[in-house]
């Protein structure tokens, strides 16, 4: 049975860049699951876009959202969290859920090529996860300098 008093993550997407403005997600390079990394010694910039469904009975209460980026063996690389509270707008119909959209930018150093997991927890319970794979960007072949004249 689905709890009617707990928010849940409706979507969790990775993007090159994402912003949440006026209840909408604006995204560039979104929905990927593979990241090509030119240099694993450098930080990578990624965005996480999420939508949280807040049921009628969960409005007007403070809830928490935590996002974690982990290696495949659950070593935490980055974490962020916030509290949110969705009120009931005057035109919201009796019993209607509403969606809260959020976007976050991260600068993260991935230790090596491999599989990574992004987890979203609402009120300390895992609600959604997405997986991505980081691969080394192949270096272009070396070119020879033109002969001197």
Can you walk me through this structure?
The protein has 149 residues and is an all-beta fold. Helices cover 0% and strands 59% of the residues. It has one domain: Immunoglobulin-like. The protein has a 5-stranded mixed beta sheet, with no helix packed on it. A 4-stranded antiparallel beta sheet has the order 2-1-4-7, with no helix packed on it. The termini are far apart.
* Largest sheet properties: 5 strands, mixed
Proportion of residues in extended strands: over 45%
Strand element count: 9
Uncertain runs: none
| End-to-end separation | 80 Å
Query: Helix and strand succession?
Result: EEEEEEEEE
Short description, anyone?
This protein has no helices and nine strands. The chain is mainly beta and 149 residues long.
Observed structural traits:
149 residues, mainly beta, Immunoglobulin-like, 4-stranded antiparallel sheet, elongated
Helix and strand topology:
Layout: E1 8-21, E2 24-30, E3 34-37, E4 44-54, E5 62-71, E6 76-85, E7 98-108, E8 114-122, E9 125-136
């Amino acid at each position: 049975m689905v709890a009617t008093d707990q928010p849940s993550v409706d979507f969790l997407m990775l993007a090159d860049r994402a912003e949440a403005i006026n209840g909408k997600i604006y995204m560039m390079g979104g929905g990927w699951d593979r990241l090509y990394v030119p240099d694993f010694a450098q930080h990578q910039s990624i965005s996480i876009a999420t939508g949280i469904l807040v049921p009628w009975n969960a409005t007007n209460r403070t809830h928490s959202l935590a996002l974690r980026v982990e290696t495949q063996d659950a070593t935490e690389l980055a974490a962020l969290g916030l509290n949110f509270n969705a009120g009931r707008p005057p035109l919201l119909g009796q019993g209607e859920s509403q969606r809260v959209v959020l976007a976050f930018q991260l600068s993260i150093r991935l230790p090596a090529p491999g599989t990574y997991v992004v987890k979203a927890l609402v009120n300390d319970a895992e609600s959604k996860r997405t997986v991505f794979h980081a691969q080394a960007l192949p270096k272009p072949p070396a070119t020879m300098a033109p002969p001197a004249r």
